[in-house]
Amino acid sequence: MTIPHALAAALSQMPALAELFRLFLSGKHLNRMAEPALWAELEQHEASYVGLFAALGFELCLDARGFAWFHNSDANSNIGKISRQLALLFMVIFDAQANAGKALQRFTDWLIDSAWLAEVYKQQQDLLDAEGLNPDALVELMGRACNLGFAVPEPAGWRLLPAVCRYLDHFESLALTAKTDSDEESTPAAEDWTADAPDDEENT
Q: Biased-composition ranges for Acidic residues (predicted)?
């Protein structure tokens, strides 16, 4: 089989290639929960997609919990700012739910609405004001989270998607480090929670 024919045969096994490439290139996460058909296609031909994207210079990462993304280690200043704001948003959401006795690993079950975000803002006003995030900005940031595959809009608000595990993993790692360092229960400072946030942003 000639190279062009071999390539054509390989590409025929990846019918969602163009759609997946556009999705990942935009900085969005693919979530099994939100887009099951695309996820099934990616999972079925995982090795082919990973190999092809690697040849094109992109690192495709898949997490068994049901999400995938292009890893980008070259974050610019704008990317860093928005990723830091997303980290802060998710941090205050998790903090409020933990205080309410909610199981953090079940975050995809939570329904978040603008009224609840306003209450979270009151709880963390000083911290959020320092980042320029008022209640309206938090709502806008939830829209950005939807654009990047971290949340999905619903008529009554939003639900977080499995890709938020990237932030939750980071928060839990920081909390464990803080506990180990102090040899007692403690909570990392806010600047620590957001200093090394995942590199997930729109390339627009």
A: 193-204
